[in-house]
C-alpha cells in the first residue's frame, strides 16, 4: 500500500524465513538425538542380554546343594552355618596362604530330601545321605554304645560311626563318646572335600600372591624351577 513503510514487512519476512529454517533444523536435530538414544538403548539391551547369558554360564567354584528335609533342619540355624563356614575359610587361609572361594549354598529339591551334594566347578565330587535328627557317634576302635542305633560310616574319612537319636546325647557324654550333629558332619565333610580339591581351587592370581610372599631366595628358586621346566 502506498505510504506504508517497507522496513517492517522486510523484517517480518526475514523473521518468517528464519523460522522456516530454524524449526526444520531443530526438528532434524531432535530426530537425530532420538535415533541416537534409541540406538544406544538397543546396544545396552544387547549388552545386558550378553552379560546375562555369560552370568548364567558361570558356575560357582564350590557349591553345597542341600535336599529339602535336610535344608529345613539346617536353615533353623542358618546364621550358625554361615558363621562356621566363614570360620572354616579363614582357617584355610591361615593354613595355606590363600582364601578359598565362597561356598554357594542352595536348596535342591531334585536330590533326595535328606542328602547333600558338594560340587567343585560344577561337578559333584561328594554326596551323602544324612540321618536327619540323629547324631553320629565316632567309634574309632571302640565298640558300639549300649544305645539303640545303627552302625554307619562317617562321610569325610570313612571312619566307623554309629547313628543314634539326638535324645541319647547325654548318655553318650556320660560314656565319653565323641559325637557330632548333622551340621558338624556336613561341615567336616565339606572341609575335607575342599582340602582334597585345593589344586583345582588355586587360581593364577592366588599362586602369584603366594610366590610374591616368599623370601627372595625362594622366589629365585621358584623362577629357576619354572625356567628349567619351560626350557
Structure in words:
This protein has 231 residues and is an alpha+beta fold. The chain has a domain at 56-209: Glutaredoxin. Helices cover 55% and strands 18% of the residues. It has helices spanning 7-57, 68-74, 78-96, 169-174, 182-196, 198-201, 204-212, 216-230, and strands at 62-66, 103-107, 115-120, 123-129, 134-138, 150-153, 160-165, 178-180. The strands form two sheets. A four-stranded mixed beta sheet has the order 2-1-3-4. A four-stranded antiparallel beta sheet has the order 6-7-5-8. The chain is elongated and about 105 Å long. The termini are far apart.
Labels describing this entry:
four-stranded antiparallel beta sheet, 231 residues, Glutaredoxin, alpha+beta
Helix share, percent: 40-55%
Using the CA coordinates, give the radius of gyration.
35 Å
Assess the beta-strand content as a share of residues: 15-25%
Enter the CATH topology name of the domain at 56-209.
Glutaredoxin
The secondary-structure element order is HEHHEEEEEEHEHHHH
What's the shape? elongated
Oligomer: single chain
Mean pLDDT: 81
Q: CATH homologous superfamily of the domain at 56-209?
A: FHIPEP family, domain 1
Report the total helices.
8
Amino acid at each position: 500500500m502506498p505510504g506504508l513503510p517497507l522496513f517492517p514487512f522486510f523484517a517480518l519476512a526475514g523473521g518468517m524465513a528464519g523460522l522456516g529454517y530454524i524449526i526444520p533444523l531443530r526438528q532434524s536435530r531432535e530426530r537425530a538425538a532420538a535415533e541416537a538414544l534409541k540406538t544406544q538403548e538397543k546396544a545396552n539391551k544387547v549388552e545386558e542380554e550378553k552379560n546375562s547369558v555369560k552370568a548364567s554360564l558361570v558356575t560357582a567354584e564350590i557349591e553345597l546343594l542341600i535336599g529339602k528335609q535336610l535344608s529345613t533342619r539346617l536353615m533353623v540355624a542358618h546364621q550358625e552355618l554361615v558363621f562356621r563356614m566363614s570360620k572354616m575359610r579363614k582357617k584355610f587361609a591361615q593354613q595355606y596362604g590363600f582364601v578359598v572361594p565362597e561356598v554357594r549354598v542352595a536348596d535342591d529339591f531334585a536330590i533326595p530330601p535328606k542328602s547333600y551334594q558338594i560340587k567343585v566347578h560344577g561337578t559333584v565330587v561328594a554326596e551323602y545321605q544324612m540321618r536327619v535328627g540323629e547324631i553320629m557317634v565316632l567309634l574309632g576302635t571302640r565298640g558300639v554304645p549300649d544305645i539303640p542305633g545303627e552302625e554307619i560310616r562317617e562321610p569325610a574319612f570313612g571312619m566307623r560311626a554309629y547313628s543314634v537319636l539326638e535324645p541319647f546325647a547325654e548318655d553318650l557324654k556320660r560314656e565319653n563318646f565323641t559325637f557330632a550333629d548333622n551340621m558338624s558332619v556336613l561341615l567336616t565333610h565339606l572341609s575335607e572335600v575342599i582340602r582334597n580339591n585345593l589344586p583345582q581351587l588355586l587360581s593364577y592370581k592366588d599362586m602369584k600372591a603366594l610366590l610374591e610372599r616368599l623370601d627372595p631366595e625362594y622366589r629365585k628358586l621358584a623362577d629357576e624351577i619354572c625356567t628349567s621346566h619351560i626350557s
